[in-house]
């Protein structure tokens, strides 16, 4: 079947990633407070580009709810990164009410450890 030259291909569908964070320490290491709406680091060896759409189903420690996030890749840690960091991507949460609630939930779960200077997966 021939496609007319003027036809544009459909944008790729966002990949879907399920991320279950079981411990507070892992949540601290994965959370990205630098993004205004919050974000999360997802360890993966899959190749992504900045700006790629990613749909994340996020589960937090001690919380049975799964939080759906339609985010964008805003950070990439390549394989063999300096400091033995895990390869993966940082997903920026969208600017919407669900993301504000998720950010508040994560920061509430982290409590005082938000001010820690322990290393994270991102900075």
From TrEMBL:
InterPro entries from the xrefs? PilZ_domain (IPR009875)
**Which terms in the Gene Ontology molecular function aspect does this entry carry?**
cyclic-di-GMP binding
Q: Where is the PilZ domain?
A: 16-102
- Quote the Pfam families the UniProt record gives: PilZ (PF07238)
| Superkingdom of origin organism | Bacteria
Under what name is this protein listed? Pilus assembly protein PilZ
Organism of this sequence:
Variovorax guangxiensis
Q: What is the lineage of its organism?
A: Bacteria, Pseudomonadati, Pseudomonadota, Betaproteobacteria, Burkholderiales
